[in-house]
Design goal:
Layout lengths: L6 H34 L7 H12 L7 E2 L2 E2 L9 H4 L6 H13 L18 H15 L13
Antiparallel strand pairs: 1-2
Helix pairs in contact: 2-5, 4-5
């Protein structure tokens, strides 16, 4: 009776495991892509204002300090649910005005705090940025981050 595994058995286990986990990897990748395309975003609500808001986000390099849906820098707060924090899901006009007031108040000048620069956005840019944040807040992130920013 043999006390160990044979070379043939070890090779079969290696190749069998490799093939099995490769198939699992491909299946999970396909499922993730299907979910992103069919479930996570609503392309019907993707308007020109949302696209312009994304360009405002990019032009001002907001991602250099903030994260959105977990992507970006961790210097400043996550903004995936900022629209909900400002009440825009209940009252879009009040949400836009709260976002504008917050950004216009920056930098606060409080010593020892991280400060957001003043970007001097136009009224249209505030409207578009609010539309972008409103659209992002509707993405099904499967409850990630675990709770809205407080």
């Amino acid at each position: 009776m043999s006390r160990g595994i044979t070379k043939t058995a070890a090779r079969n286990i290696f190749f069998g495991g490799t093939i099995f986990f490769f198939i699992v990897f491909v299946a999970l990748t396909a499922q993730s892509h299907w979910y992103i395309v069919h479930k996570s975003t609503d392309a019907k609500t993707l308007t020109a204002s949302v696209a312009r808001g994304k360009r405002v986000w990019e032009k001002n390099a907001c991602i250099d300090c903030h994260t959105i849906l977990g992507e970006g820098a961790y210097f400043a707060p996550e903004l995936g649910k900022v629209w909900i924090k400002f009440g825009g899901d209940q009252d879009p006009v009040a949400g836009r005005e709260a976002l504008k007031a917050w950004m216009d108040a920056m930098p606060t000048g409080i010593k020892g705090r991280r400060q957001m620069p003043q970007f001097h956005l136009t009224e249209q840019e505030y409207t578009d940025l609010a539309a972008f944040f409103a659209w992002v807040s509707t993405i099904d992130t499967q409850n990630w981050p675990p709770k809205p920013i407080e």
